[in-house]
Design brief:
Radius of gyration: 15 Å
Structural class: mainly beta
Strand order of the largest sheet: 4-3-2-1-5
Largest sheet: 5 strands, antiparallel
Shape: globular
Strand content: 25-35%
Distance between the termini: 52 Å
Oligomer: single chain
Length: 96
Amino acid sequence: MSAPAPAKNNDRAVPSTGSEAGGTWMRARVGDEIVVRGTAAGVIAQDGEIVGLRHPDGSPPYDVRWADSGRVTLYFPGPDAYIRHLVTGGHHGPAR
């Protein structure tokens, strides 16, 4: 009995806004929104604005200003979080 061949990136679509394996594919820009899903289907537990990046490639963790409290915290997204890329007219480059 042989083990199945490992999947290649070309064999599946790579998510552009979701996280996979602890945020491997998650990339954000300052001004994007981060959304953390609730425990019930369709319910948003938290959302906030990304106000700071720790890595020039936009990978986690992020400084997030949470909508419900206005507090800014360092956030390490889990599999229940995703990014909404908000377009404001100009080019968004990585924070420097």
